[in-house]
Write a structure and sequence with these properties.
With 213 residues, the chain is of the alpha/beta class. It has one domain: P-loop containing nucleotide triphosphate hydrolases (Rossmann fold, 3-Layer(aba) Sandwich). The chain has nine helices and eight strands. The protein has a five-stranded parallel sheet, sandwiched between helices. A hairpin with a 5-residue loop joins strand 5 and strand 6. The termini are close together. The chain binds adenosine-5'-diphosphate and adenosine monophosphate.
């Protein structure tokens, strides 16, 4: 099963994608996580991506598309995957469409996690991420068992650089301009599914499971 998660930054794509990956035994692919891993390792790609991410801008398609295509060509993607944070532009969606069609295959669902802008600022202000394993928490809605400590690997939790309020506003306007048109794009392809992302994390996941089963 091949699934795309759509939604504003902070809508809960990653939170739900991790659960989907576990439930259906498919890899969770986050282009944001791939960029952050490269930043941590100080690769050339990481340094270039960081200059855009810190400003709340999209990393250019030329860089992003190659990374995604390399990742989905790996063996563990044979039975499908859940994409989180890709595509973010129509050209990115077209590249993915071509790659999948070439394999006589298709994307099964594009799930839009719908959350209004008012809630997004609150979501991202409270997001905490593990420095080591990338697990995500929220100080109010999904707190770790021990403050500032990852439940999974016990490492420190941090505020992502791009979750600062000024950057969040930028990311939201980039989302409306460049990513939101994908909702209509996938609706026209007949694979768009909407979920109300303002509900509790478990309720959103129940709604997603109903779509996928
Ligand atoms: P995205 O991957 O779309 O950027 P995340 O999955 O990282 O978003 O979620 C953003 C923040 O909101 C995180 O701190 C997460 O714990 C929290 N969150 C996710 N889903 C919900 C929800 N349904 N209700 C409340 N908080 C949520
Ligand atoms: P995310 O972890 O999905 O919130 O992504 C964090 C940041 O990484 C985004 O704000 C972008 O700067 C960059 N990024 C992640 N995925 C993409 C993509 N598909 N296209 C362009 N930039 C991306």
């Amino acid at each position: 099963m091949k699934i795309i998660m759509l939604g504003a930054p902070g809508a809960g794509k990653g939170t739900q994608a991790k659960r989907i990956a576990e439930e259906f035994g498919i890899p969770h692919i986050s282009t944001g996580d791939i960029f952050r891993a490269n930043i941590k390792e100080k690769t050339e790609l990481g340094m270039e991506a960081k200059s855009y991410m810190d400003k709340g801008q999209l990393v250019p398609d030329e860089l992003t598309v190659k990374i995604l295509l390399d990742r989905v060509a790996k063996d563990d993607c044979k039975n499908g995957y859940v994409l989180d944070g890709y595509p973010r532009t129509i050209p990115q969606a077209e590249v993915l469409y071509d790659a999948v069609t070439k394999l006589d295959d298709k994307i099964d669902y594009a799930i839009n996690v719908d959350v209004p802008d008012e809630n997004i600022i609150d979501r991202m202000g409270g997001r905490r991420a593990c420095v080591k394993c990338g697990a995500t928490y929220h100080i109010k809605y999904n707190p770790p068992k021990k403050e500032d400590t990852c439940d999974i690997c016990q490492s420190n939790l941090i505020i992502r650089d791009d979750d600062k309020p000024e950057t969040v506003k930028n990311r939201l306007s980039v989302y409306h301009e460049q990513t939101q048109p994908l909702i209509e794009y996938y609706s026209k392809q007949g694979i768009l599914k909407e979920v109300d992302g303002t509900q509790d994390i478990d309720v959103v996941f129940e709604d997603i499971k109903k779509i996928l089963k």
